[in-house]
Write a structure and sequence with these properties.
766 residues; mainly alpha; two-stranded antiparallel ribbon; 39 helices; 6 strands
Length: 766
């Protein structure tokens, strides 16, 4: 959009407008005008109108007012039929020009309100006389139909025709400036308003400060507010809402305090706006003050206010206060918004079970569920991994029909299936989507990635880009996880390049994913480069680099970065401390590992979880302190799971401790009888200590129980294709060439003095 201005902003009437004419203002009035004429008089709202009007001035004035009343009623009802009939009647009658203009103004207004704006434009173009109301109708209509530039064009034409705006026209053109997102035009209009003498009018001033707020210029908004001679509820609410929408949450709350301290009485819109600000601040005490105000003025039980208070308390982390508002005012409410707010609050705060229980109660009460309800419910299902609920609620959505089959709900359904481990269902939901967005694709990519199906994740990523969808930071993050799991260093580098081109390489989730990918692909140097470029690393980035060093056996580097992280003021979390313990374990640093474990609760406020206990068992087991490891397990404050016992069993295999190995295996068998690694490790312990019969017997038990050991395999990527190699594989299309090369390598290894380790082989080998 462009146009030139011949003089100063205050002389806006001299705007030179583009020659292009809006496509909404074409055609002849007689062509396609939406009305029908009849020979008989039409009956409107209990009144009979004659074919023509022109008997006396008094009678005519009465009929004009009757017609205006009909048109106003038609506008309120959104019914265009009466307006078309009145339009036809007016065209056949002999009204004076002034009265005709008034009637046409009202007809155009009804057309605009009833989404017949083109008809309003045709009528306006044929009007012989226009006043400021005529132009205002067109400006407002343009804005309401999203034709903001047309609205501004009408305003300029009005000035060029010598018609000066009133306060309503000024307010209308201000809305056009907001729609055009143009601060420059807004200031030009402001200058015109001051020139016309409306600068101090509270109605216009409030529209101006609201415009500045919505265009992001809070300084101008504050300046406008402070220069106003008087303030009403609307002006106070506009300032509070403006501060909230521009991220000035504390300022919004302070304005609220000033307002309720006697300047003006807050209303429902005040509470709704300030509740959003307090929710962002996360201050429960401020929230209490807002609720007390709502209660004082008797509006707490208003649906909009109550919903805002529930949402506010939820965002402040005070779910009990949110539930109190809900139970006091809305437990028997038939409107779904308070229910949705409470369900969403539970879901977003990690209280998934309560979220689902409230949803069940909502269904039992017959409250209508909408897409907001189901998005929150599926998020709760995803968090709780509730396998039973996901299919039941999905069935409810399907019964609701196509109204709820929008991609936002479908995305939530797919994510819930993904978190619950139903990968086939994720794909089915995705394939049935009539409409997809980037979230849909990212959900599928992430589902494959989290299910260790890296190849499928990368193939989906390629398909997504081929179909024209631009990946976001979350898509890239999942793709990098897949690259890490497949050790696709070159592919990961290409993704890194795409990230840089997209300008997403500085996103926090991407930075940590890059560090993790380079570390797991064996390039710790590139991981270091990514980390060093981060201006302000967060806990996730620090944890990623510490984990990378630990995985590469660079224990000192890992602990050094941990100390640097603490010096920077970032407090370690459970994952960071797990990486530190992992580093100590792999470095044989028993004392350091035990020290950090003992400091977890005291210094870091982190309660050790099962993974931390398993890491200490590994720490002690690696250096052969198996009795200490067993004693540590006995003193655990929780029942050890199979991970802890599996760790001990692995250490027993390394150090040949049959007795402790038996104990560990016996603990695992009842929990995971299908887990082949337990049988294999214990069998190897028997074989290594000379108990071949026990080892062979255990392998036979495996066969009898139908427990099969998953074959190990290796893989490489050649020209974008993954090649997997299994032991004894006969399926690979190039198996003959592979086995010839393998035999060649075996002979070379023998010639160099290599001897295979046959300690765990149960059959005779030549």
């Amino acid at each position: 959009m462009s146009f030139s201005v011949k003089s100063s902003a205050s002389q806006l009437s001299l705007c030179e407008l583009p020659t292009a004419v809006s496509n909404n203002r074409t055609g002849n009035l007689a062509e396609g005008l939406p009305f029908q004429t009849t020979k008989k008089s039409k009956k409107f709202v209990g009144r009979n109108y004659p074919k023509s009007i022109g008997i006396s001035e008094t009678y005519q004035k009465t009929q004009i007012q009757d017609l205006i009343d009909v048109l106003r009623d038609s506008s309120e009802k959104g019914s265009i039929r009466e307006a078309k009939a009145v339009h036809g009647l007016v065209l056949k009658s002999n009204f004076e020009d002034k009265d005709l203009m008034v009637l046409f103004n009202h007809v155009a207004h009804v057309y605009s309100k009833c989404s017949e704006f083109k008809a309003a434009c045709r009528l306006f173009d044929k009007m012989p006389h226009r006043n400021v109301f005529s132009w205002t109708v067109m400006i407002v209509g343009s804005t309401e139909h999203g034709l903001f530039f047309d609205g501004f064009k009408f305003f300029c034409e009005m000035l060029n025709h010598g018609i000066f705006p009133d306060k309503f026209a000024c307010s209308a053109i201000i809305q056009s400036c907001i729609g055009l997102d143009s601060l420059e035009l807004g200031k030009m209009v402001h200058a015109q308003i001051v020139t016309r003498g409306f600068g101090t009018h509270i109605f216009v001033s409030t529209s101006l400060l609201n415009m500045y707020a919505k265009l992001g210029s809070m300084e101008d908004s504050y300046r406008m507010f402070n220069t106003m001679t008087e303030h009403n509820q609307v002006s106070w609410n506009a300032m509070i809402s403006g501060c909230t929408s521009n991220g000035l949450h504390l300022e919004a709350f302070n304005l609220f305090v000033r307002m309720k301290s006697g300047a003006c009485t807050p209303n429902m819109y005040t509470i709704v706006s300030v509740s959003k600000a307090v929710g962002k601040l996360g201050d429960v005490n401020m929230g209490k003050e807002v609720q007390n105000c709502a209660s004082k003025f008797g509006i707490e039980d208003n649906v909009l206010v109550g919903t805002a208070l529930i949402d506010m308390y939820s965002k402040c982390g005070s779910l009990d206060d949110a539930r109190s508002v809900f139970d006091t005012n809305f437990i028997n409410c038939g409107v779904n918004t308070p229910w949705n707010a409470m369900i969403s609050g539970y879901s977003q705060s990690g209280r998934s079970q309560e979220s689902l229980e409230l949803y069940v109660q909502m269904c039992q009460n017959g409250i209508k569920r909408d897409l907001y309800t189901y998005c929150s419910v599926f998020n709760a299902i995803a968090a709780s991994k509730n396998l039973q609920f996901v299919k039941v609620v999905h069935g409810m959505v399907l019964k609701c029909g196509r109204d709820l089959m929008v991609f936002t709900v479908n995305n939530a359904i797919a994510d819930a299936y993904s978190k619950c481990g139903f990968l086939d269902d994720v794909r089915k939901v995705f394939n049935r989507m009539e409409e997809r967005d980037i979230v849909s694709w990212t959900t599928l990519v992430t589902a494959y990635s989290q299910s260790s199906l890296g190849e499928e994740a990368l193939a989906t990523f390629c398909q997504m880009t081929e179909e024209g969808f631009a990946p976001n930071q979350f898509t890239f993050s999942s793709v990098l996880v897949s690259c890490a799991s497949l050790c696709f260093l070159e592919y990961g580098r290409q993704v890194h390049g795409l990230l840089c081109k997209a300008g997403l390489d500085t996103e926090k989730c991407v930075e940590s994913a890059l560090i993790d990918m380079y570390s797991k692909c064996g390039s710790i140097a590139e991981a270091e480069k990514v980390f060093d470029k981060i201006s302000n690393p967060d806990i996730v980035s620090w944890t990623a680099i510490i984990s990378g060093y630990a995985q590469h056996g660079l224990v000192e580097d890992a602990l050094q970065h941990f100390r640097r992280m603490e010096q920077s003021g970032i407090k370690a979390n459970a994952v960071t401390l797990l990486c530190v313990l992992f580093a100590c374990s792999h470095g044989g640093m028993v004392e350091d590992g035990l020290f950090y474990f003992q400091q977890m609760e005291e210094s870091y406020g982190v309660v050790p979880e099962m993974e931390h206990y398993a890491c200490i068992v590994d720490l002690l087991g690696r250096v052969g302190h198996l009795d200490d490891a067993m004693e540590f397990i006995r003193k655990m404050p929780m029942e050890p799971n199979e991970m802890v016992w599996q760790t001990l069993l692995g250490a027993c295999r390394v150090h040949g401790n049959v007795e402790l190995g038996k104990i560990a295996a016996r603990k695992i068998f009842p929990i995971r009888p299908e887990y082949s690694a337990t049988y294999v490790l214990l069998s190897n312990i028997y074989v290594e200590t000379g108990s071949y019969e026990d080892g062979l017997s255990l392998r036979n038990v495996m066969k009898d129980l139908g427990v099969k050991k998953d074959p190990g395999y290796s893989w490489i990527s050649v020209k974008g294709r993954v090649h997997k190699f299994y032991s004894g594989d006969q399926q690979h299309p190039q198996k003959n060439e592979i086995y010839v090369k393998l035999e060649e390598l075996r002979e070379k290894a023998k010639a160099m003095g290599y001897a295979p380790d046959l300690r765990y082989v149960l059959n005779n080998v030549d």
